[in-house]
Structure formats: structure tokens, C-alpha cells
């Protein structure tokens, strides 16, 4: 019976103009695997540019990954109201402009407004702040956002899981972010205390002393190795 169905979980994903649009794309892909989740996507104008430049993706392609799409200027959207139930919100990636707006409560677009609603309602809000080096103003904005309740989670790659590709790094980071806001069913495998997982590295596996060098050709898996 319809009345006995569990309520769906609304998750907001915002993609802004910082480098790293692929993180937002991967978050959307992972969330599509959860049958009880409704994803709400907001892409800023700068985020649209970054999607094209970094991922060779048209905005319409990314929109198809979401259940509901809102315009960045749509201040009257459902996710702009605290009365609309939201499980969590991720800004992936989060530009310094967006971080600053959230930290100061300057809600001039839907990304900042939806984030502000999460903070005032005590809901998980994760900001994948993507900038480096960081000057004092950046750090103060991150502190202010954290003090208001936001989770500051720069997309810093983890290498202990011995990634085979750039796609592995993106996936692991996206899964950690989703787990942090309570979507534990999408968490990356837990650390088991053994870097090799109890196995010897295969003969063809890259060994320490080599680094990956990515080439911009639209593929996350296009990787070569260089000796260091």
C-alpha cells in the first residue's frame, strides 16, 4: 500500500564554479543507486562552465542524473524553505564565492539559500571547498561556516587505498563525503589496517616511486606513469 511506503529522502547536490566539477557528477551517479533518495540539483552559472571545461559534459547531461533540477536563481524552490524535508546537502565542489556567501548568510542565489536553510534547520551541509593555497580570508570563511554548523571537506585524495586510476580517487572522495552526511550505505570500504589488504602487489601493479600524470582528453582513466 502506498500509505505504508517509507518517506523518500531528499538530498541536495550543488555544483559551483570551483575546479572539481567531477566530484558533483560522481555524487549524483552514486545517489542514483539508492531507490529511496530523490536528488535535487542546482548548478551555478560558473559551475556550468566548469562542467564543460573539465568534464566535457553538457549541462543537460548532468541534469539527467538528478531527479529534480532547480535554477540557481529560483529562490522560490522547495529546497529554499525549511518546511521542505532535506536529508543532507553537498556542495561539490564549493567555490570560495559560495563558501563566503554561506559563511556570511548572503543568500543571493539558490545554492546559498538552500545551504543556509540546512544550517538553520540543523541539517548536514558538506562543503567540498576547492582552493589552494589558502589565504587568511579563505580560512576565516571556512571557520565561520564550520562554526555555523557546516562540514568543511576539501576534496583531498586518499592514497592509502592504492588507487588504480583518477576515477578511483574521485569515487573514494565522493563516497567519503556521502558517508559523512549520513548516507553510510554509499561509504567507501573501511580501512583494515593493512595497505595491501593482506595481499602482495601484483606484478603489473605500480610500485612506490611512480606517480600518475593525467592528460586532458575527457577521460578519467587516461593515465600514464612517470618515474620520480
UniProtKB/TrEMBL annotation:
Residues 193-213 are annotated as: Disordered. InterPro entries: Flavin_trans-like, Flavoprotein, UbiX-like. Dimethylallyl phosphate binds at residues 160, 176. Its EC number is 2.5.1.129. GO terms for molecular function: flavin prenyltransferase activity. FMN binds at residues 17-19, 44, 95-98, 130. Keywords: Flavoprotein, FMN, Prenyltransferase, Transferase. It catalyses: dimethylallyl phosphate + FMNH2 = prenylated FMNH2 + phosphate. Residues 10-172 form the Flavoprotein domain. Flavin prenyltransferase that catalyzes the synthesis of the prenylated FMN cofactor (prenyl-FMN) for 4-hydroxy-3-polyprenylbenzoic acid decarboxylase UbiD. The prenyltransferase is metal-independent and links a dimethylallyl moiety from dimethylallyl monophosphate (DMAP) to the flavin N5 and C6 atoms of FMN. Belongs to the UbiX/PAD1 family. This is Flavin prenyltransferase UbiX. It comes from Lentzea xinjiangensis.
